[in-house]
Each structure stands twice: as structure tokens, then as C-alpha cells.
From TrEMBL:
Signal peptide: none
UniProt keyword annotation of Transport present: yes
Residue intervals passing through the bilayer: 20-41, 74-96, 108-129, 141-163, 192-210, 243-267
Entry's Gene Ontology BP terms: transmembrane transport
Cross-referenced CDD domains: TM_PBP2 (cd06261)
Membrane topology per record: Multi-pass membrane protein
InterPro entries recorded: MetI-like, MetI-like_sf
Name of the protein in its database record: ABC transmembrane type-1 domain-containing protein
Family: Belongs to the binding-protein-dependent transport system permease family.
Compartments reported by the entry: Cell inner membrane; Cell membrane
Amino acid sequence: MNQHPRVHQRWSYWKGWPLLGKSVGALMLLLIYFPLFWLALMSISERPLSGIPFPLSLEHYAALWQDTRWIGPFGASLAMALLIGVLCAVCATYVGRALPLTRRPGRLMLLLVLPLFIPGMSMGAALFILTRTVLGLKLGFWSIAVGHFIWAFPFALLIIMVLTTRFDHRLIEAGADLGASKWQIFRDIELPLLRPGIVGATLFGFLLSFNEMLRTLFLRGTTETMPVWNWIMASSQQSQVPIIFALTTLVLLVTLPLFLGLFWILFVRLERQ
């Protein structure tokens, strides 16, 4: 009868756990970064569809600069992502500050984050029926923005709520007692404490919008975003696939260092000051 706790204790202190944890971590790093490295390598391969990287060539990058059809969808995706990022940060901050002060924050929170669990095809079809069939509106940039915002807002709200639920409201009362206005209290007390959440909400909104395709297919009308353009090119003309490799590699090489630098400035450098 007393052997079970000893067996459990032996498993808990098994010397192989740290090595197993490191191995799983190394495997996860390999799964995450090796496909990206292989994509970049195939983008400079003369025959990328063969899966063999050699011989190397920059002809696909030259073809990318000669074919300007991707610039319009890329610009639309970039503008959309910037808009959704800003909207998510502003709206999530307002709602996230107010939600903990309501009588039943749990129920409201559940309703606000429910779109996370609704399949993208279902939400896209529902918005299409409402806007096009019921309201008779013309689909385009604005309808895509609505779909993207509904998708990204719950993520932004969850990030903000991590900070606002731990916020010490006695700081606000102290600021009011010292004669500070509501704007001064927000600017000097709340905003510095919420800054990591606001930045995170902006980045999540940007990235989720930039990569979104399921809802966009229902709501785009004649507007093309970058994921939709990539999908159309990849499915219709196999000869365009090497150019897509080059384009996605360029997007990766530009966005990844930018976001890493932004995270370093906001969460490492400023923490040291």
C-alpha cells in the first residue's frame, strides 16, 4: 500500500526529465525555424519545386521586381493590418479598463472572447449574409476590416485584461486625492503600467490581420489582400510559386527583425532604465 507514493516520488525525481525537456524544446525549435530556413533557401534555388536547393540563383527575385501585380495586394494588407492593430489597441484598452469594474465581468468577458471559438468560415459566411444579402452593401476594404477586427479584438482584449485585472486601483485613488485630472491619471499612472499590453495588442492585431484569409474570402468583394493573392497565384499558376517563395521570404526578413527590435526596445531596454 505504501509503495505507490515511493514509485510516484521516484518518477518525479527521475534524472531523465531535464534531458527530455531540453530534447522536446530543441525539437520545437527545429519544427519552428527549419521550415522558414528552407523557404528562404528555396527562394534562391534555380529549381525550387524540385526540393533541391542547388544550383543557387536570384532569378526569382528579379522576376518578382518585374512583376508588380503583388504590390496592390501587399499595400492593401499592410494598410489593413495597421488599421486593425491601432483599432484593437484603442478598443481593447477602453474595454479592458472598464470590464473589471462591471457587476458581472465574467459573463461579459465570455461573450467578448467567444469569436475565438467560432470557425473562420462560419463567421465569414455570417458576415457575408448580413452585409451583402440582408443590408445590400458592396463588399470591399471596409467589410474585410470588420471581419478582421472581430477576429483580432478578443486576442487584444485578453492581453490587456492580463494587466487590468491585476491593476491596483488604489493608485488611481491616490492620484485623484493629489488633485490630478482623469487625463493626468491615465497618462502618468495607467498608461505606463498598461504599455506592454497595449503594444502586444497592437502587434497581435497587426499580425492576425496581415495573415487572415478565411474571413477575407467571404468579405473581400473584388479587393485582394496578400494571403488571397498568394493563394490565387499558387492554385492557378504553378510557375508563380517560386516568385511567391521570394516574396514571402522578403516579408519575413523585413517583419521579423522589426518585431524583434520593437520587443527588445519595449520589454528589455525600457525595463533596464
